[in-house]
Write a structure and sequence with these properties.
This protein is α/β, with parallel strands linked by helices. It has two domains: 81 residues, Arc Repressor Mutant, subunit A, CATH 1.10.10.10; 210 residues, D-Maltodextrin-Binding Protein, domain 2 (3-Layer(aba) Sandwich). The chain contains ten helices and ten strands. Strands 4-3-5-10-6-9-7-8 form an eight-stranded mixed beta sheet, sandwiched between helices. Strands 1-2 form a two-stranded antiparallel ribbon. Helix 1 crosses helix 3. The chain is elongated.
Length: 301
């Protein structure tokens, strides 16, 4: 027989551990901070285990508390998702995908027509944010660049993230070797300051320093490169379509691993949801297809 201890206390603890305070948990659960504190204290007494260290201005979970919260949060997420599925009208099928703005514009959106052709009844919703945006509670899945380590989530690799300079064919005509690159023409991305130094060092031209215009996102820098403003550091798979269309070319053969990969990120219980399962099958297949024909790629020398 299933033995569940004090569900209100468990819910209060999980909210407090996730939010970091009794007050925030109380606001979420629509009770007072004092009520949350009492329920957590009763839970600790019943379990015979301390879940929090009470500091002067903050809560710190104990080792047992961290382990408990890491297990509870996915359970509550799964319960919320299941409830939403059961109560939603049968005609409504929504898939919310969290991605960065450049990935959305440069890879996902141009390919969504293919997914919609296969799954016309699924309402795809895209929510964008920067690389540091946490996994949203309402996301069906996310596509993130990183090391594959996101606690509580499954990370399935999709693409390598290789770096190589790209520019218009006109600018490429003056680039015979990496030493021809000039710092003021090298377009930079603010959140990835190591891209140019990594590539230039691998090319044996570490003396060159990127000093060109700086942009917030890769997509902005790549658009500036298309417009002839300078040479952008391209990252795959952002650049594949631009290379195939001839909007950009890669003047040098050298590509350098960024040290991260692109991952499809999701909660474990999502695999049982048919809409996510359909999207997962599609994107894994799309990511495994050969890179778009690189007619814009020409080798140095």
């Amino acid at each position: 027989m299933r033995r569940l201890l004090f569900l209100n206390g468990i819910k209060a603890f999980e909210a407090a551990a996730r939010s970091g305070s009794f007050a925030a948990a109380g606001a979420e659960l629509n009770v007072s901070a004092a009520a949350v504190s009492r329920m957590v204290h009763l839970l600790e007494e019943r379990l015979g285990v301390a879940l929090f260290e009470r500091k002067a201005n903050r809560l710190v979970t104990t080792a047992a508390g961290r382990a408990y919260q890491n297990g509870l949060t996915p359970i509550f997420d799964a319960l919320a998702s299941l409830t939403a599925q059961v109560t939603a009208p049968s005609s409504v099928r929504v898939l919310t995908i969290g991605v960065g703005p450049t990935f959305a514009m440069k890879w996902l959106i141009p390919r969504l027509a293919d997914f919609r052709k296969q799954e016309p009844d699924i309402d795809v919703r895209i929510t964008t944010g920067g690389a540091a945006v946490p996994f949203g509670e309402d996301w069906s899945c996310g596509i993130k660049l990183g090391d594959g380590e996101w606690p509580g989530l499954i990370a399935e690799p999709l693409f390598a993230a290789d770096l190589l300079p790209v520019c218009t064919p006109r600018l490429a005509g003056a680039l015979k070797r990496p030493g021809d690159l000039k710092g003021p023409t090298l377009l930079r991305v603010a959140h990835s300051p190591d891209d140019w130094p990594s590539w230039l060092e691998a090319a044996g031209t570490a003396r060159i320093t990127a000093r060109g215009p700086e942009f917030e996102f890769y997509g902005q820098a790549l658009q500036a490169a298309v417009d002839g403003l300078g040479i952008a550091m391209g990252i795959r798979p952002y650049i594949d379509d631009d290379l195939a269309a001839g909007r950009l070319v890669a003047p040098f053969a050298l590509s350098v691993p960024k040290g991260m990969r692109w991952y499809l990120v999701y909660r474990g219980f999502s695999t049982a949801q048919r809409d996510f399962a359909a999207f997962r099958r599609w994107i894994v297949r799309a990511a495994a297809e050969p890179a778009t024909r690189r007619k814009g790629l020409r080798h140095a020398g």
